[in-house]
UniProtKB/TrEMBL annotation:
Pfam families: Sec6. Residues 1-14 have a biased composition (Basic and acidic residues). One of its GO terms (molecular function) is DNA-(apurinic or apyrimidinic site) endonuclease activity. PANTHER family: EXOCYST COMPLEX COMPONENT 3-LIKE 2 (PTHR21292:SF7), EXOCYST COMPLEX COMPONENT SEC6-RELATED (PTHR21292). GO terms for cellular component: exocyst. Residues 184-355 form the Formamidopyrimidine-DNA glycosylase catalytic domain. This is Exocyst complex component 3-like protein 4. Residues 15-25, 102-113 have a biased composition (Polar residues). It comes from Scomber scombrus (Atlantic mackerel). Residues 1-120 are annotated as: Disordered. Residues 80-90 have a biased composition (Low complexity).
Length: 729
């Protein structure tokens, strides 16, 4: 019969059978289509595909398939292999290994190692250890990578990408290894100390530990037989101690690096966990190391976490003003990424009792606290202290780090609190408050400097706000204090209270410092109107500043009270300066009142009135409540001095001059009353005294005078009956 391949050289046939149970499928196709189908079959036979298990493509399978599945034997097109030659996959022709030729059921490495066979011989315990399945997964992954390369060339990468995602999902959704395990049979004759040490160095931990247990068993048996005095026994005990020390050091090293190199250590960590479990069980037996292996594992985890934090980039503050903010951002990112890796990958190498995720979380709480203590020593600026406090108190617990969605739900039952050194947070807050005080003091210094250079030295008139003389520095100070309060509140209420109190403590000395500088630079202006304007300006500004600070009385009562006393002291000095200046100014005009000249000339009263009116106009630029206080005191002073001149007997009226004097007093008094009413003086009880005195002075006989004296003395007890009667006679 004519060979089919010679009839149609553009077609070939591929026969596939699986363990002689599946009939061969024979199909005619073009050479390119045959190539593509071969690639697809290679993908289907990937270990990732459940149907690929046990598949084997060999020349025998092809031959059986031709005999059983087709009445007409077919051979591939030219160049065709000779009879009995295994079919070659197109992948192999392209330079890749033929995927179907692999034995998917080959033993894992540790079981094919001659040294391992003797420790697991005659026992199927090894099949229950999860790391053997993990090795199969690694082998499948390598096969899949080669198949993916071929798939790219044929445009079917999407299918393999789906498989890769499924594989990753399988890895993320893994399960912890079982808590219980069966220890393999110990070797009858352990390896030498040098050999065991070499195994430890080469990280063949399972074999090294079994030999170490066998050596320890020999030691225990000899100890029971020979007692404690044997030199050989002492030497063997020393060897055991050295080997166990090396094993623990190696385990600690692996654990420290486990999250940095998860793929490398993944399988080794399974052996590590079993070794730790076994040594914890044998802790009371002779020949072991003192101290808990589990505790040593936790310390190794902590050391690994510390190394991770130390590796986070920390720029020199001289080179970057935002060095701390950048470092804290990178620190949070590293913590989240590390814990994500623990949650998704690392914990599946340990049994549940290790509480791997919780251990790493606790280690980060402790290690971060230690790390921040080191960083804090470099933090000096206010903004950096704030950033550090905010990171510790708020951001570390937030969804940015420990509350990250990617760590849920495992973080649900975990603490999110940092393990800080005792009083560390208190020290940090105090340091922050000291910087707050320094910043406030710097602001106050700049305010005094500005007033001197831009106002006093230039003799510039003050600005107005709502028709009141005003210097805006009180708003600058209030804004500064309010910003500290607001920002500190974002961290916690305690820091807000401390920060505000620190501001007020620094403010307490400001009124006194301001007064000293004002005296030094502005005393020469007295008695110019500009000096009066400055006085009123600072009365207004410090009044507003005190009102702003009164809002913090509930949280800082002592500090507000002390600051209030200092401000009131400054107010008394400023208002007293205005009063003293006015008194000195009107003194000569008051002295010439109620004299012979006064009765005929109004010049002295007009000077008194003009100066009082000018001061009244200035008072209109003064804010409450000091304007009322100033008007009251000024009103009382003018009335007292005006009436006082009448009481001094400087001039005696004869004949009809009594009536003339009474009329003049009434007219002048009415002008003064109107003036003080405009000043909003609250001493309205003084308004009638002038009228009553005018009535008395206008009387001609003593009887009428005495009739008017009694109500006057009752209304104004400061007047003595004898003085008034003598003055009016």
């Amino acid at each position: 019969m004519m060979d089919k391949s010679t009839e149609n050289p553009d077609e070939d046939r591929v026969s596939v059978s699986s363990n002689d149970r599946t009939p061969a499928n024979v199909t005619k196709m073009g050479r390119m289509e045959s190539f593509r189908n071969s690639v697809r079959r290679a993908v289907e036979k990937s270990p990732l595909s459940p149907v690929a298990k046990g598949l084997k493509v060999t020349a025998e399978a092809k031959s059986d398939g031709n005999q059983k599945g087709s009445p007409h034997p077919q051979t591939p097109s030219s160049p065709s292999p000779s009879a009995g030659t295994p079919v070659t996959s197109p992948l192999k022709n392209m330079g890749y290994e033929d995927t179907p030729a692999r034995k998917s059921s080959s033993l894992p490495r540790s079981m094919t190692d001659p040294n391992m066979l003797k420790f697991f011989r005659g026992d199927k315990n090894y099949s229950s250890l999860p790391f053997f399945h993990k090795k199969k997964k690694e082998k499948r992954r390598k096969d899949s990578n080669q198949e993916e390369l071929a798939a790219v060339s044929e445009g079917i990468l999407e299918e393999n990408n789906v498989k890769t995602e499924e594989e990753e999902e399988e890895e993320v959704d893994g399960e912890e290894i079982e808590e219980t395990y069966a220890l393999a049979e110990l070797p009858h004759t352990p390896l030498s100390v040098m050999q065991i040490n070499k195994l430890i160095e080469n990280e063949v931990l399972e074999e090294a530990h079994l030999n170490l247990l066998a050596l320890r068993q020999e030691f225990q048996q000899e100890q029971e037989q020979c007692g404690e005095d044997s030199m050989e026994l002492a030497k063997k005990e020393k060897d055991l101690s050295l080997l166990y020390g090396e094993l623990r050091n190696k385990i600690n090293s692996l654990v420290r690096d486990s999250n940095s190199l998860p793929n490398r250590n993944k399988e080794l960590l399974v052996y590590v966990s079993r070794i730790i479990q076994e040594e914890e069980k044998r802790a009371k037996d002779p020949g072991g190391l003192p101290g808990s292996w589990m505790e040593a594992w936790r310390e190794a985890v902590l050391e690994g976490v510390q190394a991770k934090l130390k590796s986070v980039h920390l720029e020199q503050k001289e080179k970057n003003a935002s060095w701390l903010a950048v470092h804290l951002g990178l620190l949070g990112k590293a913590i989240v990424e590390d814990l994500e890796s623990v949650r998704r990958h690392l914990r599946w190498s340990y049994p549940p009792s290790f509480r791997v995720f919780s251990t790493y979380v606790d280690s980060y709480h402790k290690a971060v606290g230690q790390h921040l203590k080191t960083v804090e020593q470099q933090v000096m600026e206010l903004k950096d202290l704030y950033a550090l406090l905010d990171w510790i108190i708020n951001r570390y617990k937030s969804e940015r780090i420990m509350g990250s969605v990617s760590l849920q739900p495992d973080m649900k039952d975990e603490s999110t609190d940092l393990q800080l050194e005792e009083n560390f947070l208190k020290r940090l807050k105090n340091k922050y408050c000291c910087r707050v005080k320094a910043d406030v003091r710097s602001t106050l210094d700049r305010i005094i400097t500005f007033e001197n250079e831009d106002v006093w030295r230039e003799r510039r008139s003050p600005d107005k706000d709502d028709d009141f003389l005003d210097s805006p520095f009180h708003m600058d100070i209030w804004t500064k204090v309010k910003s500290f309060a607001t920002n500190s509140r974002k961290i916690d209420a305690e820091l807000e209270q401390k920060a505000v109190c620190s501001c007020l403590e620094e403010l307490k000395d400001f009124p006194g410092r301001f007064e000293a500088e004002f005296r030094r630079h502005c005393s020469a202006l007295k008695p110019q109107p500009l000096w009066t304007e400055y006085q009123i300006t600072y009365i207004n500004s410090f009044t507003s500043l005190l009102q702003h600070m009164e809002g913090y009385r509930d949280s800082c009562p002592d500090q507000v009270e002390k600051f209030g006393r200092e401000v009131n002291g400054l107010m008394d000095w400023l208002i007293g300066g205005l009063q003293d200046h006015y008194k000195e100014d009107v003194k000569p005009y008051l002295r010439r009142m109620m004299t012979r000249k006064w009765l005929t000339v109004d010049e002295d009263f007009e000077q008194l009135y003009r100066r009082t009116e000018l001061l009244s106009q200035h008072c209109a630029l003064m804010r409450p409540p000091h304007v009322q206080k100033f008007a009251r005191e000024l009103h009382y002073y003018v009335v007292k001095e005006y009436i006082g001149q009448l009481m001094k007997n400087n001039y005696s009226c004869k004949n009809r001059k009594h009536e003339k004097a009474a009329g003049k007093i009434r007219r002048q008094w009415d002008k003064l009353v109107e003036l003080f009413e405009n000043m909003k003086s609250e001493h309205d009880w003084l308004h009638h005294v002038g009228d009553e005195l005018s009535d008395i002075i206008g009387q001609k006989n003593k009887a009428d005078i005495k009739n008017h004296l009694k109500p006057l003395v009752e209304h104004y007890p400061d007047f003595r009956y004898f003085s008034i009667s003598h003055s009016t006679v």
